[in-house]
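Hey, sorry to bother you again with one of my protein questions. There's a protein on my desk that I can't quite get my head around. No rush at all, and the record is pasted right below.
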Amino acid sequence: MENHARGRNNNQNQRGRGKGKGKGKWRANADQGQFEGEGRLNINAQSGGSGGGGGGGDEGSSSRDSGELSCGKELTTLPFIQFGSLQLHATDPPTPELQPMEISHTMPMSSHPESCKLLPVKRPDNGGNSATQNLPLFVNHFYVSFNPSRTILQYDVNIKLEMQPKNGRNIEISKPEMRIIRDKLFSDNPRQFPLSVTAYDGEKSIFSAVELPEGRFKVNVSKGEGLRDHSYEFTIKLVKMLELRKLEAYLTGSLQSVPREILQGMDLVMKENATRHCMQIGPCIHAREHNNDVDLGGGIIASKGFQHTLKPTSQGLVLCVDYSVLPIRKQIPVLQYIEEHLNINFTARSILGGWERRSIENALNGLKVTVTHRKTTQQYRIGGLTRQTTKDIRFVLEDCADSSRSTGVGLLEYFRDKYKKEIKYKYLPCLDFSKNKKINYVPMEFCELVEGQRYPKEKLERNAAQTLKSECLAEPKKRMQVICDIVKERDGPCGGDTAENFEISVKTEMTEVVGRVITPPDLKLGDANGRSARFTPNNKYECQWSLANRSVLEGKQVERWAVLNLTSFDRFPLNADRFIQQLMARCKRLGVHMDWPLFCEASNMDVLSNTITLRDLLKSINQRARSRLQILICVMTKRDPGYKNLKRISETEIGIMTQCCLVNHANTGKEIYLGNLALKINAKLGGSNVELFDRLPHFERDRHVMFIGADVNHPGSWNTSSPSIAAVVATINWPAANRYAARIRPQCHRKEKIENFGEICLELINIYSRLNKVRPQKIVIFRDGVGDNQFDMVLNEELTDLKKTINSDGYNPTITLVVAQKRHQTRLFPQDESDVRGNGNVFPGTVVDTKVVHPHDFDFYICTHYGSLGTSKPTHYTVLYDDHGFTSDEMQRLIYNICYTFARCTKPVSLVPPVYYADLAAYRGRLYHDALMDSSPASTVSSPSSSTLSPSSSSSAPSSLSSSSGYNGRNFKLHNDLENQMFFC
């Protein structure tokens, strides 16, 4: 193996080249003071000009340095050259021309001798060439120019109360409060702390274009009328100097490691103007005025905003801006919100019913409000409602000198005397803001919702959800225009003077790039007689195929099945005989032959919410069948929370494959619906709906290849204790590669790294071996759900764990690792509408791998599906590790072709199926967990025992968890009869 080293002389602007030989793969980066790798490395570096052999430089320097590096004990016994934290062991003294030095390959050596880290592979070529059509596109990337000679100063900020409470409890200061404190300090001292040349993250960091004073500063902040001022200690300290020349070096390729701190600092600078003048809701920015927003009813609006981020690309630094629509609660009085949201008329009532009280409490719990009976900026979080009505609440005044009031004062009287306010709704309970055992009750009529509080879209009424969907799914032409308008707004991401003060400017024109449309693959389906036939998707606009006069490739014989009719006692029950006949007929035409069901069990929806009754029902169905059912069709009246109980019990305890459907669809008996139902049934039972006619690209001659998909499902942001659910799926057949087995594991709360990834994969490899009598020689892994800053974890923890586990018995397959990302803001817009049809989206198979992609890494955007609604979002794929030597064309065609093998539909999907299935399996695991928690008594709530967590994860386990059973992997283990079937499909 031969590697080339480059050096730059900062004083004489000379370049040097050298050669190094060693064992293993490695990379050194002297500019960052890092050297990482394995094995033994010999370096012979020649300084001089850019000519070969060390000569031919501007001054003809021919000085040489030879040295020896090793990743082991020998390192401590040899002389060394020190460049920052980089140590080069050498026999000759160093020459200044060697600094800084960079050595680049797939694998680096770290400054720690035992640490051998992998880095993402580099792009193998200049992009792909395969195309049936070139498509001129606009991309929502806006070029950013900056002054590389500038330095951004990063300051660490610590804010705390000057006088801590006597009980010693730390008072948590919220991000909005921290911003208020920062603004007060800067407004009090504008010459020392100029606001327009700083950017604040709302917590720990301030980035500044000028030097700021360091030390401790006292800040007095008024909480409002009737409250004493709070004194804070604001400590600021310079911690880093971020030199933008390093970012330029990274963009041009002379620096290998990503300068993340610089990117984070500049990203914060670009967000500062919008954050200061608008509402920040998660990563999104929304205007405080709601002139263009859409009323969804019930006190909810569809707020229009944007989100933006800086990205290093091949053309340089860009600002990626996208349109955003979120459902948020109106900033209105609490009583008005309740009236609109729950349709309760308070003026016509003198008392609240029990259901009304529960509905109000559920609607308000956890929301933030401000009070209106006095002037204050303080926000309160609603902890619930008082048990007593307002007129019945009495309390003892603190430090009350009036002995007549020592027995307590009424809330009505208190507000009348203290604030000159007469409480109107005396029969209503108050809002409870009590905290740290300090009682604080406020009547609802004096409270107003804080702006920008999100409303869960899954809780929207049907019409509101449809309206929100239509606003979110803007067609390409409209979305593109909205984004261009956002970029030009004064309060937008490019407005204000903050970025200008850092010498950062943004072009307001979208990036132009040429996309390539690659050829769809030929498919293998059954013809009308059930024989295998070749089919070419001839409609390049949608690339979908019809099942009319066609059948699935391999239909299963369904002899033992039953129907569980959960609508038997409903107002509009299932017409069972008609549904069964229509389903059987549709399946027969598709090549899936179904006998008449063994029986049709009558029940109702209430059974789903009672796990004991449901378990008994499923056991009786299993016993009634006398031998194992192939599948149980469950007809439901509506989408019900009890669905999770049905899936968990049937799949982990009883061992019955289930397929649910809704009665209104079942009774209509539409061909399309019944056809989709048949596809899912056949896939779950091990049939093959469609295959690629030719073998997958790059693997045409290979005997056995396995595709693995991995994903982690995390609990919602409001949940602070539930485990994350990891799922790994893998193909178990070749060359069709369309049947999968899955494994589900719980792990620590919100932990993205998949614990025991190697062990899970080895289990799936052994299944492949048992079914095919041979282990796969090649493995391709698709990892979902990780951000750019987690690539290192995937490479050096998950992949390393996999290699270590499977190599332990001499098994050494070649591996390719690819990350799939859908959570990004990049969108593709055709430049000429005449090039596309429908709503103006790009064609399936549209690839972009130049200009808007990473400067060096092997990545690309590909839109594998046809977007009939809204604007298509391409999937971003990054190849992190590659033993197979894929070219850009081969990897892109592999991903595009495999997207045609998804079992549940008759068109290519937007995400590569191994990842799609892993996402479905992880969600199924989430349902298992939620079902466990719903069925567990309150007494089971405790921290997990050490036996239920792996040693590597137990140390980071949260101190308080929903239930120990939620972390017990046994509760997620599939029944033996189902564990190698596509139950998740």
About this structure: The two ends are 46 Å apart (CA to CA).
